[in-house]
From TrEMBL:
<protein>
    <recommendedName>
        <fullName>2-aminoethanethiol dioxygenase</fullName>
    </recommendedName>
</protein>
<dbReference type="InterPro" id="IPR014710">
    <property type="entry name" value="RmlC-like_jellyroll"/>
</dbReference>
<dbReference type="GO" id="GO:0016702">
    <property type="term" value="F:oxidoreductase activity, acting on single donors with incorporation of molecular oxygen, incorporation of two atoms of oxygen"/>
</dbReference>
<dbReference type="GO" id="GO:0005739">
    <property type="term" value="C:mitochondrion"/>
</dbReference>
<keyword id="KW-0408">Iron</keyword>
<dbReference type="GO" id="GO:0046872">
    <property type="term" value="F:metal ion binding"/>
</dbReference>
<dbReference type="InterPro" id="IPR011051">
    <property type="entry name" value="RmlC_Cupin_sf"/>
</dbReference>
<dbReference type="InterPro" id="IPR012864">
    <property type="entry name" value="PCO/ADO"/>
</dbReference>
<keyword id="KW-0560">Oxidoreductase</keyword>
<dbReference type="Pfam" id="PF07847">
    <property type="entry name" value="PCO_ADO"/>
</dbReference>
<keyword id="KW-0479">Metal-binding</keyword>
Length: 239
């Protein structure tokens, strides 16, 4: 019998390979989220304490990235966010995403882009995970209510038109979440990833109202190391 994480990957492939078929996409996406809702750290054999204990403190990064599965259609990965650290505010252009916390608690601040302000790609640098910098660019967005999510909660999701920018911060200790994205980021082009901050970052705007986000360079305090996936083998079987 296939493991739960393998069934999640197979359902993700089934869902996003039929993205253009609106009559079945919504049903498949709901099935995918329902499977993701069930995921725990045990399902991917993740032990945060053991992983962190194996790393010399002087090399410890704010975030550890674990690749679970990746192809041209979908990426499935695990992010471990160290205590008090965060993934800075970033976008998911033209993407669907599902985020399932599998350990600890995270605080998520999401934004919904109001308009897709076209801009020419001229990166000043490219960071790890294909997050790209830009200069003097802004994005109008609606600031959504902040949420706290832990391993007992269901999966969160984003779409190309809803909650497609977010910042994720660990709360009261380290946290980990499984991330499903489709289509994947690309290094250069319209699906590259950009970092942002609120225009008046020192005095954040109220929720449920329009705010202006500014593209910023990759925050120097953010970087990630990588760890090896040690969960069940993912064997893709066409369906």
């Amino acid at each position: 019998m296939a493991s739960l994480i393998e069934r999640v990957v197979r359902q993700a492939l089934r869902t996003f390979s039929q993205r253009q078929k609106s009559n079945v996409f919504d049903e498949n996406f709901e099935k995918l989220k329902a499977l993701a809702d069930q995921l725990t750290a045990a399902d991917v054999k993740l032990n945060i304490d053991n992983l962190q204990a194996a790393k010399p403190v002087r090399y410890e990064s704010p975030v550890t990235y674990i690749s679970v599965y990746e192809d041209a259609l979908v990426t499935v990965s695990i992010f471990i966010v160290k205590s008090g650290e965060k993934l800075p505010l970033h976008d998911h252009p033209h993407m669907y995403g599902i985020l399932k916390v599998i350990a600890g608690t995270v605080k998520i601040q999401s934004y919904t882009a109001v308009s897709n302000n076209a801009f020419a790609e001229s990166p000043s640098s490219v960071g790890r995970l294909f997050c790209q910098t830009s200069k003097s660019r802004t994005q109008r967005a609606i600031k959504m209510p902040e949420v706290l999510v832990n391993a007992n909660d269901g999966a969160c999701f984003l779409t190309p038109s809803e909650r497609n920018l977010h910042e994720i911060q660990s709360v009261d200790g380290p946290a980990a979440f499984l991330d499903i994205l489709s289509p994947p980021y690309v290094e250069i082009g319209e699906r590259s990833c950009h970092y942002f901050k609120e225009e008046n970052g020192d005095v954040p705007g109220p929720v449920s109202s329009e705010t202006r986000l500014i593209h910023i360079p990759s925050p120097p305090e953010y970087w990630n190391d990588v760890a090896t996936y040690e969960g069940p083998t993912i064997r893709y079987l066409a369906s």
